[in-house]
Amino acid sequence: MKIRDLMTKPVASVRASDSTAVAARLMWDCDCGAVPVLDDDGRAVAMITDRDICMAALMRDRAPSAIPVAEVMSRGLHCCGPDDDVSTAERVMRAQQIRRLPIIDGDRRPVGLLSLADIVRATDHHKGRGAVDVPPEEVAGTLADICATPPRAPNPTTSPAF
């Protein structure tokens, strides 16, 4: 199954120069939790999530309207193309522990967004919504890998002294 068969389109996006308040409003209006960040030429360069915005506002003790997207967006963009197989997207999601993947064209312009929920819906053959090309076991494995706790370096202020 190809990503284009499952991805959500059109995709909302923000610019790196926008405030995180603009990004939050867009996520609220579009009922989504992440959007691609575009450069001045409209090419995808990063992602920003609702969690990024909340944590930035809390940790900086500033209003989202005072925090540019460029300060809190992801630095590495993990993406796929619309003609890639869904299994390719799942491998990226697993390896990077991400739930949403921007889908870009050859010019790095966003053409869609693939979420874990889109993949799960493809397994819902009981309601006739999708093909059974994505086995439920594969989705469960992807979810388990995404949700795995990544290894962290000990925090010297909270680690027990021996």
Give a description of the structure.
It is a single chain. This protein is of the alpha+beta class and 162 residues long. A three-stranded mixed β-sheet has the order 1-2-3. It has a two-stranded antiparallel ribbon with strand order 4-5. It is globular. 35% of the residues lie in helices and 15% in strands. The longest helix is centred in the last third of the chain and has 12 residues. The protein is built from six helices and five strands; from the N terminus they run βαββαααββαα. It has one domain: CBS-domain (Roll). Helix 4 runs parallel beside helix 6. Strand 2 and strand 3 form a beta hairpin.
Task: Please give the structural blueprint.
Blueprint: E1 14-15, H1 20-30, E2 34-38, E3 44-49, H2 50-60, H3 69-72, H4 86-96, E4 100-104, E5 110-115, H5 116-122, H6 136-147
Parallel strand pairs: 1-2
Antiparallel strand pairs: 2-3, 4-5
Helix pairs in contact: 4-6
Please give the CATH architecture: Roll
CATH fold naming? CBS-domain
Order of helices and strands: EHEEHHHEEHH
Largest sheet: 3 strands, mixed
**Straight-line N-to-C gap:** 53 Å
Spatial order of strands in the largest sheet:
1-2-3
Helical content band: 25-40%
The domain tally reads 1
CATH homologous superfamily grouping = CBS-domain
Tell me the number of helical segments per DSSP (H or I, 4 or more residues long).
Answer: 6
Overall SS class: alpha+beta
Total strand count, please? Answer: 5
Q: What's the shape?
A: globular
The CATH class is Alpha Beta
Overall mean pLDDT score? Answer: 85
Query: In terms of per-residue confidence, which ranges show pLDDT below 50 for 5 or more consecutive residues?
Result: 155-162
Strand portion: 5-15%
CA radius of gyration is 17 Å
